[in-house]
Amino acid sequence: MADQSAKQGSGGIAKIAFFVVLAIVMVSGLIFAPEHAGLAIHPMDQFQLAPLFGGEHIGTFTPTNQTLWLVLALVGIVLLMVVGTAGGKEVPTRTQSVAEMAYGFVYKMVEDVAGKDAVKYFPGIMTLFMFIVFANFLGLIPQSFTPTSHIAVTAVLAMTVFVFVTVLGFVKNGAGFLGLFWVSSAPLALRPILAVIELISYFVRPVSHSIRLAGNVMAGHAVIKVFAGFAAALGLFGFFPILAISAVYALEVLVAFIQAYVFTILTCVYLKDALHPSH
Amino acid sequence: MSSTTQTTEAAQEAALHAIDAHGAAEAAGMPQLDFSTFANQIFWLVVTLVVIFFVLSKIALPRIEAILQARQTRITNYLSTAEDMKQKAVEAEAAYNQALADARTEANKIVAEARAEIQAEVDAAAAKADAEISAKAAESEAAIAEIRAGAVDSVKAVAKDAAKEILGAMGHKADAKTVTAAVTARMKG
Question: I need a surface site. Which of A109, A150, A201, A222 has the fewest CB within 10 A?
Answer without folding.
Answer: A201
